[in-house]
Amino acid sequence: MRPGTLSAPVLADPRTVRGRALVPVLVFLGMVVAVVSSLGAPLVPTVAADYGVSLGGAQWSLTITLLAGAVATPVLSRLSDGPHRRRVVLGALALIVTGCVLAALPAGFPLLLAGRAMQGIGLGLTPLAMGVARDHLPGPRARSAVATLSVTTVAGVGLGYPLTGMIAQNLGFHAAFWVAAAAGTAVFAAAAFVLPASTHRPHRPLDAPGAVLLGLGLAALLVALSEGGQWGWTSARLLAVAAVAPLALGAWVRHELRTAHPLVALRLLRDRAVLAADVTGLVAGVGMYFLMSLVIRYVQTPVAAGYGLGRSVVVAALTLLPFSVASVGASRVAPLIGRRFGPRAVMPAGALAFVVAMLVFCFARSGLWEIFLLMGIAGLGVGCTFAAMPAFIVSAVPPGETGSALGVNQVLRVIGGSIGSALSAGILTARTTPPARLPAESGYTVATLVGIGVWVFAGLAGLLLPARRTAGAGAAGEGAADSPGSAGRDGDGDRTTRSAAAVTSTARNGADDTGAAAGKVAAGATGSGPDGGEGHGQDGSRPGRVPADHREGR
């Protein structure tokens, strides 16, 4: 095979058991990893009580999962961007199952954190599942499978919250991880049976220095944010850790801009539209997990503290359901806003909705119905904000770079989520006076005001978006056809699978007038990259694919 070129992948034969089972297994995989990744959010107060750690410390059971996911998403995509994708998927599933077992063992808080970090690897697996569907299914089936996987991600998170709460309340929170381990083992067995090989893909090098610098910088930043209240914001220990973050992240940015095969294609941020969309995505990720963390803790705070609702972990988990449902429903609202006020208004409108939700939490949080209401409003805000991003990105970059641009946006969202989780814990810890274990109620008010500031900044960043280039949008949408299966290429010929991560939200939210180009990303529009990247015909077929009479098993 000529270096840098793609041979024809083998299509799954629907007449065989493996061929018929491929899509159900991929959906099962997406559902399980979504449920596993959501296990930490409702359990923070329970973890604190069980292990005798502070609520700020227990928050790390969520933060460390997001941190691992932020690093794992581009790393897994790069590792799978070659002939070893099957091994990468199975290896990642094995690590997730191991992490679930470690978290299920009542052997101490450090072991729980280690297990939760390993579970965070699952955040990078759904894009790989989309890549399998894109490469080994014919056009119409591939598009349907990618769309299903996108919705499955949201449905899995929505299912994970109440499921975790019910298991934790009746059997103890360790039982939730045993159930997750059993489900992960079933997924591993099924995936080992049906996943096809990807020997048609050429090998691509992994940017190991980039992964190390990114992980080091993010870890230092999150430790500084979450522990500042306990260590003291001016303590020598905190200042030393805080100094590592800009040094490591600055070195990472410099490295990514210079290396031939970057982990994350940061050079695309030179475009104003991409930069504005990515800054908005980063800040929105901060604000989203910021509010979720505050609500989960507040709902479970005993009324004896003088505030809080004193509800069970099940009820706390259920408060997140309106958020998930509304975020999916926002894909219907976003096009209406785009048609009425123009595409540039969608992201600021989403930020405004989230600001309203934060204001409700700030001034009216005494009843459970108010929590459900504000979480529904917040879900609409996040859905509208994330729905509009892909369209602006794909309209701003050359077709061959669409995948990398969407990949950067997805990674920054996960990074933002980890920062939001750590920041909420840091603020509440700063408002906790020893020997009290719970923060003063004013801590929630201060944190909410900070969250409002975060979302105001997100809205202003969205206003900086230039008008979308109409001609470019179509081209970008066409070039984006390769992104679900990682067949898009960077402008320098460096093919990337990182795009598939962003397709999760693109396929879920981006099928409207505000995101016509993004809709094509999920739908698999026609076109090919300028460097010879694989494209689609008008009927959804792919040039170079194995003809129907040469499918697997024939």
Fold and architecture overview:
The radius of gyration is 22 Å and the shape is globular. The model is unreliable at 469-554 (pLDDT under 50). It is 69% helix and 0% strand. The chain has 21 helices and no strands. With 554 residues, it is an all-alpha fold. The chain has helices at 17-37, 44-51, 55-58, 60-80, 85-104, 109-119, 125-136, 139-171, 173-194, 208-231, 236-258, 272-300, 313-318, 321-341, 346-363, 368-396, 402-430, 441-463, 470-479, 499-509, 516-523. Helix 8 packs antiparallel against helix 14 (321-341).
Question: Short summary of the structure?
Answer:
Helix content is 69%, strand content 0%. The chain has helices at 17-37, 44-51, 55-58, 60-80, 85-104, 109-119, 125-136, 139-171, 173-194, 208-231, 236-258, 272-300, 313-318, 321-341, 346-363, 368-396, 402-430, 441-463, 470-479, 499-509, 516-523.
